[in-house]
Design brief:
By secondary structure, this protein is of the alpha+beta class. The chain is built from 1 helix and 2 strands; from the N terminus they run H-E-E. Strands 1-2 form a two-stranded antiparallel ribbon.
């Protein structure tokens, strides 16, 4: 089933799974496009992002969106 955003939607979770050969920059670009689309639907939308990557030791790392704390 595809995600359907309607005027009654109050919250949603999107997981963008990026595999080789895509890069973290590709993931951010996809998230940017999704964010722009959501904000076009409602300028009061609140978006939170996290990038989880595999560290060399196999333990996940999290990084916030560029420019956020």
């Amino acid at each position: 089933m595809r995600t359907r955003i309607t005027t009654g939607t109050t919250s949603a979770l999107f997981i963008l799974d990026v595999l080789d050969p895509m890069t973290d920059d590709d993931a951010w670009a996809a998230a940017d496009a999704l964010t722009e689309g959501l904000l076009a639907l409602g300028s009061d939308a609140v978006v939170h992002r996290r990038l989880v990557t595999a560290a060399p030791d196999g333990v996940g790392r999290r990084r916030s969106a560029p420019g956020s704390s």
